[in-house]
Design goal:
The complex is a heterodimer of chains A (163) and B (686). Chain A is an alpha+beta fold. In chain A, 36% of the residues lie in helices and 15% in strands. In chain A, α2 crosses α5. The chains are: A alpha+beta (163), B alpha+beta (686).
């Protein structure tokens, strides 16, 4: 199948790659760029394990074509930590035991990352709604909500400190 | 600098052993996208497998045309049952003593069954080629209800078993009958019912559910044609059992088969069995001499891999007029699907369903479970509990509620009346289980006090009395006697392999340690849990104990992680025996202790040694805290650099025995009574 050249900035690094037009973004990230953090759980946009951030929006990369990202900026879980310092959402999931098997975690983290920019001071109900596109089969969500609350608080503290 | 000595309490904190609240050791990789799941594995020259599946549930295969698929660029092979026949791999044994088709052999037994496989350069080409394989079916009548399956004129589902009047679990009395398994004393139970003043009965269906781990099943098989070695990375909850079965199936000596369970994205019983996809990928790798990856999609996972439940249950209770239960009878029709592929211990085709007398003192009881074939996917696994225990708990708890309603008794009162009393322990149930200890009355009281049960009842009554109340209120009350920790070997085996588990600990010269276990975590947090047990047992901080599982070439043989068995069985392998063969290291304290401290950057620097005299208190300092990284340098330990391989005892110990009912046999402080109420919300992965 004829390939198309795309230019994508992934985790701050420009990538110029030739891909089949039908290549899904998740396969492009995992197999072309070896960024295996985002996972394939359902291939139908239900579970959110493949969630990445594209130009400031949460996107389920299992139902998004790589060619749709031409000219875009993509952030994956591998790009969350900054020079070895965990992002607040990563710290939140660690501190609040927001994961067990870890398979949904990269998607959860990427959704939480974007959600807390959309709503920096969410209520518990808003967190549950904001994270509702991401499924976890292990934890029962309670600690995921706590993890997002932890991250929200931490991000607010960071914002206050820099203000 | 740390003080050279510290109290026993401070030492416990530094050890971060059992009972300590500490952060998980495995999380660093998961929160940074650095887990290593099976689909993350890439090997040079790796090909991809996809599966042609049947669109119908019961059909004869008239013709398979693979020419178009084989002609596609990038397609390496298309295999059907006919191709596997010369290898005698078109059928495989199941863990339950039945056989299952690897690829549908002349006949399809359930919808989405594997019919052919395609091997191609990448997953896109493989998926294209699957579409190009043409299969002609002649549809047959479909049976999806086990009661229909048992009718005299029901279609014969398993023609391969024609004329077989007995199966792996005794006589078969119908062509779609698998087994009938009984426990308890039928005559005694019948007698109790004959003389009972009060009798209740209830039919209930516990529907089929799918464990649905977020990661589907898959593998990467890699056969080295030069060395004759087979390495397979696989999403398996029981890698050692897989190795044994793969060796038996393939004829490759078990010493040349290496099975590796990498990080697993949840299992919940779904990843215990051996699926056709695994076998096909292995065959393809052997045939082609290249690594082959197969990862199923979600629809394939839900449609074809092991389910749980699907029990049609009839329960009966006999009681006195004041609510004392005197007899229990249960009849179950169990829908096992097209092949009997449960993963129960071999002697127990209905798992541990006979825990169905629950937390109650019932003098006479009998249960019977009839396994039946239908045109549904095979399975019947221990989903988030031990084997068929959830089914048993649902049955008895529902029956007790039914009895309470009949007698007009409160749900709590009828349970209090029938609980096994504290002074009755150790207690042997009418089904033969030994309950080692418990105080169910106290546990229930704690729950009722915690939720202010009388206030809840009052609120409920008020809502029901108020015609304008927008809501009505129901109160559920459930006790759960969970028989966990499948083992010991003399009671439980799978395919003749005793259900023990193992631990091998190596202590390094500097005092850190590596423990290799026969189990495999799928989110349970073994790397933390086992490290904590070892910390308490050996006196080495959990932070510096590395736990490894899942690689059969390095880990000791074990039966794996399912049915709530890892901590009771493999954990007991750590906890139980060290003191018996060698002096318990935690008790023979080191003479010398070099302490270390954390700097503000989180890096560790060793500081000067402090001499200590063995066996004198106070305890030597263990530096650091549970959330930091203590790194002791234990100068005497190197003399004991040793390998200890421990199995759990084949002798039932109270703490490791499957027939005891403690929910947490290892850690006394956590040994809560087995009574849980629905108001509690335990969330755990199994």
């Amino acid at each position: 199948m004829a390939k198309k050249l795309i230019n994508v900035n992934v985790n701050g690094k420009p990538q110029e790659k030739a891909v089949e037009p039908r290549t899904l973004l998740i396969h492009f990230l995992r197999e072309e760029l070896n960024l295996t953090g985002a996972h394939i759980g359902c291939e139908t946009s239900h579970c959110g394990a493949c969630t990445v951030d594209i130009d400031g929006r949460s996107v389920k990369s299992c139902t998004h074509l790589a060619v749709q990202c031409d000219g875009s900026e993509v952030l994956t879980v591998e790009g969350l930590a900054n020079k070895g310092v965990l992002h607040a959402v990563q710290e939140g999931f660690y501190q609040e035991h927001g994961l067990q098997c870890g398979f949904c975690t990269p998607g959860m983290l990427m959704r939480a990352y974007r959600f807390l920019q959309e709503n920096p001071n969410p209520s518990e109900a808003e967190i549950r709604m904001g994270m509702s596109g991401n499924l976890c089969r292990c934890t029962g969500y309670q600690n995921i909500v706590k993890a997002v609350q932890y991250a929200a608080k931490k991000l607010q503290e960071q914002a206050t400190a820099t203000a | 600098m740390n003080a050279p000595v510290q109290t026993a309490e401070a030492r416990e904190i530094a050890l971060a052993g059992m009972g300590a609240s500490r952060l998980r050791k495995e999380d660093a990789r998961f929160i940074q996208g650095k887990g290593n799941y099976v689909d993350d594995i890439k090997m040079p020259g790796m090909l991809h497998m996809d599966i042609v599946r049947a669109p119908v549930a019961h059909a004869r295969i008239k013709k398979i045309n693979k020419e178009a698929a084989l002609a596609m660029p990038g397609v390496h092979a298309v295999l059907t049952a006919d191709d596997l026949k010369p290898l005698k791999l078109h059928w495989m044994p199941t863990l339950a003593g039945d056989v299952a088709a690897v690829l549908a052999d002349e006949k399809v037994h359930f919808q989405m069954q594997e019919v052919a496989i395609v091997i191609a350069d990448d997953r896109y080409i493989a998926a294209d080629a699957v579409e190009a394989v043409e299969v002609e079916y002649e549809e047959l009548p479909v049976v999806i209800d086990p009661y229909d399956a048992l009718k005299p004129d029901a279609p014969v589902l398993r023609e391969d078993l024609a004329g077989k009047t007995s199966g792996a679990h005794g006589p078969r009395d119908h062509h779609n009958h698998i087994f009938t398994w009984e426990a308890g004393d039928k005559a005694a139970a019948d007698s109790a019912f004959d003389n009972a003043a009060v009798k209740v009965s209830q039919h209930m269906y516990y529907p089929r559910v799918h464990p649905c781990p977020l990661e589907t099943c898959g593998c990467v098989a890699s056969f080295d044609p030069i060395k004759g070695d087979l390495t397979t990375y696989i999403t398996s909850q029981a890698p050692h059992v897989v190795r044994t079965v793969v060796s038996m199936l393939s004829g490759i000596p078990e010493s040349k088969v290496r099975i590796v369970s990498p990080d697993i994205g949840g299992g919940f019983g779904n990843k215990v069995g051996i699926y056709p996809g695994y076998v096909c990928a292995i065959v393809a790798s052997i045939v082609l001499g290249r690594p082959v990856k197969w990862v199923e999609d979600r629809v394939e996972n839900i449609s074809t891999t092991a389910f749980a439940r699907d029990y049609h249950m009839d329960g009966e209770l006999a009681a006195t007029p004041d609510g004392k239960i005197i007899g229990l009878r249960v009849n179950v029709v169990a829908d096992h699907g097209a092949f009997d592929a449960c993963a129960d211990p071999t002697k127990f085709p209905a798992g541990l369903f006979h825990i169905c007398s629950g937390s109650y003192d019932i003098p006479a009881a009998h249960c019977s479970v009839k396994g039946v074939y239908t045109n549904k996917a095979p399975g019947g696994v221990a989903y988030r509990c031990s084997f068929r225990v959830t089914e048993a708990v649902y049955l008895i708890e529902r029956m007790v509620d039914v009895l309470a309603q009949k007698l007009g008794m409160d749900k709590a009162a009828i349970r209090e009346k029938n609980f096994i009393k504290k002074e009755q322990f150790p207690y042997t149930s009418a089904f033969g289980f030994e309950y080692d200890s418990g105080d169910y009355h106290m546990a229930l009281k704690k729950v009722l006090d915690a939720v202010d049960y009388p206030a809840l009842r009052a609120e409920q009554a008020a809502k029901r009395a108020d015609p304008n109340s927008p809501t009505l209120m129901g109160i559920g009350l459930v006790t759960f006697t969970e028989v966990v920790g499948a083992g010991p070997s003399k009671m439980c085996d799978i395919l003749g392999v005793g259900m023990f588990d193992s631990c091998e600990i190596r202590i390094h010269p500097t005092g850190s340690a590596i423990a290799r276990m026969g189990t495999i975590t799928q989110g349970q947090g073994h790397q933390t849990t086992y490290a904590q047990i070892i910390a308490t047992e050996l006196g080495i901080p959990s932070e510096v104990i590395q736990v490894e599982e899942g690689d059969t070439s390095t880990a000791p043989y074990g039966l794996g992680t399912y049915g709530s068995r890892s901590t009771p069985v493999a954990g007991a392998a750590i906890a139980w025996p060290p003191a018996r063969s060698t002096p318990r290291p935690a008790r023979s304290l080191p003479t010398c202790w070099k302490s270390a401290k954390a700097t503000s950057t989180g890096k560790w620097t060793a500081s000067k040694s402090k001499a200590m005299t063995a066996n004198t208190k106070p305890w030597p300092t263990l530096p650091g805290s549970p959330t930091t990284s203590p790194r002791p340098v234990w100068s005497r330990v190197w003399r004991r650099c040793t390998t200890m391989t421990r199995r759990t005892s084949p002798t039932p110990l109270a703490s490791t025995c499957a027939w005891s009912t403690s929910t947490a046999p290892l850690a006394k402080p956590r040994c809560a009574a087995s009574t849980r109420s629905t108001t509690a919300a335990p969330a755990s992965t199994r």
